[in-house]
Amino acid sequence: SAVISQKPSRDICQRGTSLTIQCQVDSQVTMMFWYRQQPGQSLTLIATANQGSEATYESGFVIDKFPISRPNLTFSTLTVSNMSPEDSSIYLCSSRTANNEQFFGPGTRLTVL
Amino acid sequence: RKEVEQDPGPFNVPEGATVAFNCTYSNSASQSFFWYRQDCRKEPKLLMSVYSSGNEDGRFTAQLNRASQYISLLIRDSKLSDSATYLCVVNMGYKLVFGAGTILRVKS
Question: How far apart (Å, rounded) are the C-alpha atoms in residues A1 and A95?
Answer without folding.
Answer: 10
